[in-house]
Design goal:
With 259 residues, this protein is an all-alpha fold. It has one domain. Helix content is 81%, strand content 0%. The two termini are 30 Å apart.
Length: 259
């Protein structure tokens, strides 16, 4: 019971921190809406007919998955902030599992992504992107998986960094290539071999593809858009999640002990 209470307390703390951080709220809401409203609209107007699919829908699903995954991953930077403020020392000497602490942080950042996801979906309705109740239900389930997956990725990246400043400098170099390798804005079915290999090892690719499985499942255009089916993506995500959690938590705890 104490483990569950600790997880919920850490998750609640991160969610309250978001509500008090106005700059993060503005940035988290603004950039996805710009990507969808401007980039999605221009791509559909210029290339929609030749592409054979609605590029507004394509960009919408890609940006939705990318935003939730990235926000959850980058939110784990708070672990480094806690370390610098010695808050992590206090929680790591408490009699609860190290995995419970990490899971609590990931759960908190996953909750933080919910307002962003709701705002993006609402904006999608404003732009007249079709979303049936069945699609929304599948997308909601996919969003939960994507948020947890992003948090696990954040753990393994941040476990190898020494400070919040280093994380802010390095994280963009880890994330930016995945914007294009994951197919957020562009199809990636026919990449050159070197880029195809990099794409297959980019974790964000599977988060984006899972979201498109949820949105396009059963639609005639699904074959043009989906890379793998949902079960395949879930298996890959589950394997990566376990590796990121086990290795990332081990490295982070070891760094705490060596301080």
């Amino acid at each position: 019971m104490s483990e569950a209470s600790a997880i919920l307390a850490l998750a609640h703390r991160d969610f309250i921190k978001l509500l008090r951080d106005r700059q993060r709220i503005i940035a988290d809401f603004a950039f996805p809406l710009i990507f969808i409203g401007i980039l999605g609209t221009t791509l559909q107007a210029g290339f929609g007919e030749r592409a054979g699919i609605n590029l507004m829908d394509y960009v919408f699903t890609g940006v939705l998955a990318q935003t939730v995954w990235q926000s959850s991953a980058m939110g784990l930077i708070s672990l480094l902030a806690d370390r610098e403020q010695d808050f992590s020392q206090e929680i790591f000497v408490s009699p609860i599992s190290r995995y419970s602490i990490i899971i609590g942080k990931i759960l908190g950042e996953s909750l933080v992504t919910l307002p962003q996801a709701l705002a993006i979906i609402t904006f999608g309705f404003i732009l007249q992107i079709h979303m049936s109740p069945d699609q929304l239900w599948r997308m909601a389930l996919a969003l939960g998986v994507v948020a947890l997956f992003g948090g696990a990725f954040g753990v393994i990246v941040l476990a190898n960094l020494s400070s919040q400043r280093a994380a802010n400098q390095i994280f963009p170099f880890v994330l930016l290539p995945q914007f294009f390798l994951a197919g957020i804005f562009n199809p990636i079915q026919n990449l050159p071999l070197p880029l195809d290999i990099l794409s297959k090892i980019a974790p964000m690719r599977y988060a984006v593809d899972l979201m498109r499985d949820a949105y396009y499942g059963g639609l005639p255009s699904s074959q043009q858009v989906q890379l793998f089916d949902a079960p395949t993506n879930l298996i890959i995500i589950a394997a990566m999640f376990l590796v990121f959690m086990i290795v990332g938590t081990f490295l982070f705890v070891r760094a705490e002990r060596n301080r």
